[in-house]
């Protein structure tokens, strides 16, 4: 949503001006606009000037001020907040008729995008309703319409915030308790008897969130109905706990006691604690309690029934994980901690489109807290005095929520890069404070790496590499010197090692070495990542050298595909002591090695080389065995450069020189036993499977377009040329226009083929995992097996929809009695997670 700059600025009396290095205010003109290119120059009034003599439009100025007032109100819990809200409601009520669209648009945006101030905006809506019920009705109707729209779109984060808003409206007497209960029933009725699923968990999560904020109001207005809804939640949670008993597929730390879906279980514990305390929440200021007398005579509004969406896939329903506790905090503050982290999480989700605004607002949330709820390092005179063991430290809670979302399982809400860029903005906003906070959080996570899910180790490594690269690669690596004494595949050592390898990708080896203590140099390659060309002069016999030199000269002098193939044919046809298959394999290896060498300088060179010699490579890769040989040559060539290896294989799959099943066969080769902790193997696997899935989705879209085009032709053939439905023509007769489209049968045939390949990829990958994990020879030792099992969990969790779609075949062919118990347990957990 566009705030037209309102949410991007600074508010309050301490606002900072945008000035240059000489203290002069900057001119607000677009990038590269010259001073003489001002929009109003040379015009007197009219559309360009806005008013007489180019003066600004007074109406637009008023709208801008109204929007600014709505956005700024309630930034902090100050003694003047009551007066500010009352005065703002008077201003809005007075100007509402003239600027209705602006007020409603801004109000909608503020509720959705500033979710930690929902108590303020619910109070403001109540005051508007108390002063003018018609205005209140329009605000409530608008927000209810937005709620229905977000429901239809499956935006559960927005739905949760909006339900909290309506819960607080009960306290302003704008809607009745019965109306809110009916809204709650829309979420609880479908889960009363339904089996636990991602959809029902999502509904229960929203219901519990609403009850947390509405509990005190419902306790006064409808205590029996409140108890009934709470019992419904508890009954569902009991069923859900039994369904997910013992599963660790969605657990970030595996040493945590399994308790089903952790987020919901923890949320229920908080709900019970608040209920035992008369449903009182004291973490955030509730301004509606100051206006009790104003709300008594207010008009209550009825709302239409909610309709939950149908037909959404299970992956569309998400619940957040239990918030990580990375620093110790007092147990007696558990409810306050949950409430604040929930508001931080909502803000982080709702502002994901703008990391800069999100970082700024995250650091403002504490302003609405009640006194002594938390300590704030960024406003303290001595930040180092903040002790997490005696009080809630706000900045640590922000970091905990950020890493909770980064490591969320089964998948994150947003891309990993969002959380990296957000952390960078947080550190830029408060460099002295947030740098230490984020470093402490990472160290505490890595200290528990032995119990951290393998996929989460991978994500944190990616996060840290990009984060550190944005601050001159500065990090206190000396704190991790002890990892050099750990075994090669130990989780902490592997995390540090893979992070350093990513930093080498983002910079260069010597620069990274310069930032490391000498004791850590063993964690990075001794030499710069390079290729491993097989046909060096010293390693060849005379006749092999002749072929290699001739082919090398041809490629370097920009020879054609035909010339290269002729050289190979001419030379290898003379090797009469070698059979045809062996000669073909030798020629194939020679060509692939030289093409890779030709493109070894940069990514662009590699792509150009592959594209140029694609016909020859496709000709050589005419059998599954030939494709596998090409893939193995690529892996050997880039043995010391995993990044180039992954990119080259990805492009060979793109050009169909090798196929996805070939890549899977390569990755699960027995030669990799002992190296299952290497991250680049699983990067290649993810890229390959994702590519197959993406092709299926693209073909499904093409098929829908082709069918739509075919339907358009059928409609056009009915003779309704003017499209008004009466079969008449208002224009001179012309040949019927036929929309350009693809042949439906052709696209359907390709889609069927790709769906068959998608199924083969999933089944074959699962089969290889199970074979290796169920055999003593599949892994080098117990630590190696732990890494492989972790990657198996990651694969099954990530592609759970495809696993569920092929569950019958997997159960009969892969997860048989011969499979190890832990692999069968993962399969059962995957099916439950995909429900």
TrEMBL record:
Organism: Coemansia biformis
Cellular component GO terms held in the UniProt record: nuclear cap binding complex; nucleus
Domain MIF4G positions: 63-278
Domain of life where this protein originates: Eukaryota
Lineage: Eukaryota, Fungi, Fungi incertae sedis, Zoopagomycota, Kickxellomycotina
Subcellular location: Nucleus
GO molecular function: mRNA binding; RNA cap binding
Gene3D superfamilies on file: 1.25.40.180
Name the record gives this protein: Nuclear cap-binding protein subunit 1
Comp. bias regions, Gly residues: 1-15, 43-53
GO biological process entries: mRNA export from nucleus; mRNA processing; nuclear-transcribed mRNA catabolic process, nonsense-mediated decay; RNA splicing
Membership in a protein family: Belongs to the NCBP1 family.
Matching InterPro entries: ARM-type_fold (IPR016024), CBP80 (IPR027159), MIF4G-like_typ-1 (IPR015172), MIF4G-like_typ-2 (IPR015174), MIF4G-like_typ-3 (IPR003890)
Keywords recorded for this protein, A-Z: mRNA processing, mRNA splicing, Nucleus
Compositionally biased region (Acidic residues): 717-727
UniProt xrefs under Pfam families: MIF4G, MIF4G_like, MIF4G_like_2
Annotated stretches, region: Disordered: 1-60, 714-743
Keyword NADP: no
